[in-house]
Amino acid sequence: MIELESYRLDSERDITDILRLIRQEAHTCGYSRLETEQFLLGISEIATNAIRHASDAVVDFSILNKGGILKIVVSDSGPGIANLDLAKVEGFSTIHTSLGIGLVVAERSVDLMDIKTEVGQGTIITLEKHRPIDKQNVDYGLVSISDSKYDFNGDQYIIKEYNGDSILVALIDGPGQGYDAYAIANSCTNYIAKHYLDPIDLILANLDFLMNNSNDQVGITASIMRITPGKMIYKGYGDTHAYLVKDGFYHTLTNQGGRLGHLKKYRSGISEFSFEDKIQIILCTDGLSVLPLTKTLNGSAQFIANSIFDEFHKPNGDASILCLKYQRS
After folding, report:
1. Shortest CA distance to 129 belongs to which of 157, 100, 153, 107?
2. Structural domain harbouring 295
3. Are 108 and 148 found together in one domain?
């Protein structure tokens, strides 16, 4: 397995050779054809830009975390990118032969894109593709419905797998019901999707800051959890509620009081749990009653979500439950 290999990038033919190698390695590491071609598309866009705009371009390719991460670093000694924000706008280009969508396409094709650039010095762009977790090791179940009086659901969720063995999940309950609640909750999950590698405390603190500087008068409640092999980290705010099923028993996870965006002071600190083999988690919004369960429910994650929802959802309001079963490989 490749730890690190470097290649000069002098012509577009070099790109073809590099893509052929990475395609072979991605297949060996268990990436699907779609995942592989997405990654190759991102690499192609960045490498092509380096050839057209810069000089002395080099591509570094590495495989990390037992194949869970494919990483490409494209560096050059070119003019740099004078206005990075503008360059990432779809349709922008500094040359007539470019469609001006290279950076946009690349960012959409990978799980992480990082750009470091300095005018007159050059640019370093890092791209990563993360292998999804094997279906034998993770199972999801979700039920989420809006209040019957509204067309939009103010509950939103995110599931982000990364590194080939880790997951970030979050459940956001927007203020009230209807379109405004949906729009705010959706903007929050979009923020989390872009910053999923940040510490949970930082993600929630920034959501509190963003909500505090919006025109919203209510705020949001949230549960967010990160699962890595052998460890689970959790933090929640408000009346969302969460549960950890470990060694056959339910553990209610404690939330901080208040709503993000209307806290007197954000309090740092997370809950952390270790586990040997497997765990199950349940996240709920306030559309479900607090669960009195004490024993593990059997069946698929979707079956468990359906069963709990049918028994404990309230007659009014948006209601959501997200179940996850995780086992170490």
Report:
1. 107
2. 138-327
3. no
